[in-house]
Amino acid sequence: MTALAKDYPKGCQIPRHRHRRGQIIYAASGVMQVTTREGIWIVPPQRSLWVPAGMTHEIRMEGHVAIRTLYLDRGSSMSLGTHCRVLTATGLLRELMLAMVQAHRSRDRERMLMMTPLLLHELRGAEEMAIHIPSPSDPRLRKACQRMLVDPSRTDTLDQLAQHVGASSRTLARLFESELKMTFARWRQHVRLARALNRMSAGYPIKKVARDAGYASCSAFSAMFHRILGVTPTGYMKQMSV
């Protein structure tokens, strides 16, 4: 296992690339948007993203981002799977990742070897978070998704989107289910959540974040936020400041 610590300014983008080793990309602060062939992954502070070996990806920084990365060899990382996953960093896991980066920086190989088994154990047991915007392949569905990605606050109905892309609403609904494994409403929630996390990391007040995400009230926005992330927007902001 090797490690890397690097800070990036707002708007910085790491172009498409891949690694021979699997990666745990941890957002010590700031929000990252990681794009792979499987879709867009939103990685807020105190979360980490598992990127399997050989997976091509690019990273965009939404605000100032402090990235701490661990590179795992294939043998160590097989149990973490072959698909990207956003993982919650518990207090212990967070400290282990930071300590691993520090030990690698000071070339303390003995300490790294002692921490590795516990770190892998914590990674395998980490709670997975569904902050994922899957990418479609069907051109009609791709056109519909792009329309919402450009402006997540849009209130288009499925019928309106279907008319825009030249398909029936039934066909479009079926494509969301078959290709993206979620309903149109659920997919739009994830897109709006991604926009909200980016805005919150930039310091916007929750009321404005809710409005920019397309919600008429803070309570409706808070309910969606809690349903997906398991914490209220206010609680999430407190976690960010820890």
3D structure, described in words:
- This protein is 46% helix and 26% strand.
- It contains ten helices and nine strands.
- It has helices at 74-77, 91-105, 109-124, 139-150, 158-165, 169-180, 184-201, 206-212, 218-229, 233-240; strands spanning 2-8, 13-17, 22-36, 39-43, 47-51, 57-72, 85-88, 128-129, 132-134.
- Strands 1, 2, 3, 4, 5, 6, 7, 8 and 9 form a nine-stranded antiparallel beta sheet that branches.
- Helix 8 crosses helix 9.
Radius of gyration: 19 Å
Main beta-sheet annotation: 9 strands, antiparallel
- The rough form would be described as globular
Number of helices: 10
What's the total count of β strands?
Answer: 9
Task: List low-confidence stretches.
Answer: none
Q: What oligomeric state best describes the polypeptide chains here? A: single chain
Ends distance: 27 Å
Q: Which class do the helix and strand fractions yield?
A: alpha+beta
**What percentage of amino acids are in beta strands?**
25-35%
The average pLDDT value, as a whole number, equals: 87
Secondary-structure element series: EEEEEEHEHHEEHHHHHHH
Descriptors:
single chain, 46% helix, nine-stranded antiparallel sheet, 9 strands, 26% strand, 242 residues, globular, alpha+beta, 10 helices
